[in-house]
Amino acid sequence: MKKSKTSFFCQHCGYMSPKWLGKCPSCNGWNCFAEELVVESDSSSRSEMKFDGKPLPIEDIPAEEGERIVTGITEIDRVLGGGIVGGSAILVGGEPGIGKSTLLLQMMHRLAEKGLKVLYVSGEESAQQIKLRSNRIGASSKDLLVLVEISLERILEQIKAVDPAIVVIDSIQTVYSADLMSAPGSVGQVREASSRLILFSKKHGIPVFLIGHVTKDGSIAGPKVLEHMVDTVLYFEGDSGHAYRIIRSMKNRFGPANEIGVFEMQDKGLKEVPNPSAFFLAERPQNVAGSVVVPSLEGTRPILVEIQALVSVTNLGMPRRTAIGVDHNRVSLLVAVLDKICGLHLSGSDIFINVAGGIRVEEPAVDLGIVAAMASSFLDRPIDSHTVVLGEVGLTGEVRAISQMEVRIKEAARLGFKRCLVPRTSATKSAKIAKIEICTIGSLKELLENIF
Ligand code: TYD
Ligand code: MG
Fold first, then answer.
1. pLDDT tens digits, 144-160
2. Does residue 401 carry a pLDDT above 60?
3. Is the predicted pLDDT of residue 433 greater than 90, yes or no?
4. For residue 81, how far is its CA from the centre of ligand 1 (angstroms)?
5. Longest alpha-carbon distance in the chain
6. Which residue has the higher pLDDT, 363 or 14?
């Protein structure tokens, strides 16, 4: 006999409370608790998951990582930190239509071609639809098994029966467990299904990919509540209106975080972009005001991105500040610094900042690029198109040191840039290495003197 009880869950973040609350203590959302029936399952469904663990001295635990499964798609292998680790759980998130199913099917096809038995479980599309997609991307193999199923118990049964090398669940929001009464896609179901799949994969050493949808505002229950449960979190960036797709590892227990892979969506599926810097700079306008290139570091890889700014006189009482691809607060701060320290009075202007190519750059090294682009647009003076800038900007207008100068400058030199403005404090030996002129600056005033 199953014992059942109800609990209240925050529909935004999954916080559980035994009684109803008006405000969520975890995410501070208001009126977001809903009652869900929690059926505590009898031990049978859980007992199979148990590990028969005993405490071991840490020095006796074998240290080898085990063989990684290499997919052969280099962009993905890099994002995963060098391949798929046995027994790991990988969450692949992104907006609907961005290419999650396509990428996973392509990966599974590659692995099946190598002779690994892989299982692709779909609760979203019929077997025919998957077949049509696989025809499109040229995926066909007897080792690529497709299962259309949404019941967690039956999925686990099938995984046990088939014993695949890798499992893909497309998507975790469609999977439901009969142990819970709430609907598929609710926080409770998503968490229950994932935790059981993850335990299963850990116990049997089978890596599992969980696909999860996130909407633009991130409001849907799902991937966010799973991030702490899985080993690796990959998110798709960019939007489905453009051809490029960027996959970023937000978290990785088995490799560097923040690593990115760049793909282009073509009519035959996703294609790797081996030289992303050239790709992001492909449509860069020459010698126009408001555009500058910054060598940003994404994970371990330097990538040149173009930062664009448009500063135009406003007739609104409150000028607009729009930032796409960079942090909005960072932009407000830099506007204030430019105003106060450099005497560029931007308070009467609307300001729009955009990172071309749809990539997001979070690191402070792009500060100087944002400032340079804004100043260039405001003064209507173009920055020489063979110049790159990099550095963090402090509140007193000082330009601060950043990490890994050398790789960044090398990448700029490789793409034919001739001059690099860098913080004085991190003036490096790089000048000798690369065929590029290094110009050191200590403050924003010096930036404005040297940039045009
Ligand atoms: P899909 O993988 O179904 O997205 P998700 O699983 O993230 O919801 O990708 C769907 C989009 O990709 C769809 O708009 C069509 C496009 N697409 C191509 O442009 N070329 C292709 O070869 C494929 C398979 C899809
Ligand atoms: Mg899909």
1. 999 999 999 999 999 99
2. yes
3. no
4. 25
5. 79
6. 363
| b/e 279-311 (16+ beta carbons within 10 angstroms → b) | bbbeebeeeebbbbbbbbbbbebbbbbbbbbbb
The yes-or-no verdict on residue 22 having pLDDT over 80 is: yes
Distance CA 412, CA 417 (A): 5
Give residue 127 CA to ligand 2 midpoint distance, Å: 13
Mark the residues whose beta carbon lies below 5 A from ion ligand 2. 101
In 3D, which of 253, 256, 248 has the Cα closest to residue 92?
Answer: 248
Q: Whose CA is nearest to atom 2 of ligand 1?
A: 99
Give the mean pLDDT of 112-119: 94
Q: Is the beta carbon of 267 within 6 A of some atom in ligand 1?
A: yes
Residue tagged 């701060």 (tokens): 333
What SS3 class is residue 236? strand
pLDDT, one tens digit per residue, over 32-89 is: 887 776 766 555 555 555 667 788 888 888 777 678 899 989 999 999 988 999 889 9
- Residue 196 CA to ligand 2 centre (angstroms): 22
For residue 75, give Cα distances in angstroms to 260, 274, 294, 399, 411.
8, 8, 22, 34, 18
- Assigned token pair, 435: 């065929």
Mean pLDDT within 201-221: 80
Residue 326 CB–ligand 1 contact under 6 Å: no
With a 6 Å cutoff on the Cβ, whether 241 touches ligand 1 is no
CB of 137 closer than 6 A to ligand 1? yes
Phi, psi of 4 (to 5 degrees): -125, 150
Contacts of 384 (CB under 8 A, 6+ apart): 287, 419, 452
For residues 293 and 370, the answer to whether their CB atoms sit within 8 Å is no
Contacts of 127 (CB under 8 A, 6+ apart): 146, 148
Contacts of 147 (CB under 8 A, 6+ apart): 119, 120, 121, 122, 155, 158
Under 8 Å between Cβ of 92 and 80 = no
Say how many Å lie between the CA of residue 99 and the centre of ligand 1. 5
Q: Please work out whether the CB of residue 109 comes within 6 Å of at least one atom of ligand 1.
A: no
Q: What is the dihedral of CA 10, 15, 17, 19, to 10 degrees?
A: -10
For residue 1, pLDDT over 50 is answered with no
Got the DSSP string for 352-383? EEEETTS----SGGGHHHHHHHHHHHHHT-PP
- Our answer on whether the CB atom of 96 is closer than 6 Å to any ligand 1 atom is yes
Q: Report the separation in Å between the CA atom of 207 and the middle of ligand 1, taken as the mean of its atom positions.
A: 24
Q: What pLDDT does residue 221 have?
A: 53
